[in-house]
Design goal:
It is a single chain. By secondary structure, the chain is mainly alpha-helical. The chain is 84% helix and 0% strand. The protein has three helices and no strands. The longest helix has 34 residues. The radius of gyration is 17 Å and the shape is elongated. The mean pLDDT is 91.
């Protein structure tokens, strides 16, 4: 039973990593990156590395994902301001 879960987890990691790299939309890529980080944290926990798994979840998926989402929001706001002809603030 655990072998089937490990195989499913490995397959999910491969597919989510591939989809993250090949998605045409940036916002979907960021969300898939966060999901990949959470799956990777679960994989580390299954490999008896819960400390690495917690660090991956906190830093890799949590902090990096939040920073990427914030940067995407700033990019979208600057695009909206530029399309309206307003100067963007730095």
């Amino acid at each position: 039973m655990m072998f089937a879960f490990d195989l499913l987890l490995a397959l999910a990691l491969l597919l989510s990593g591939l989809r993250t790299l090949t998605t045409p939309r940036l916002d979907r890529g960021i969300v898939l990156f966060i999901a990949f980080g959470l799956l990777l944290a679960l994989a580390w926990a299954r490999l008896s590395g819960p400390d690495i798994g917690l660090a991956e979840a906190a830093i890799g998926a949590g902090l990096a994902g939040a920073l990427l989402l914030d940067a995407y929001g700033v990019l979208q706001r600057s695009k909206d301001l530029h399309s309206k002809g307003l100067p963007s603030s730095a």
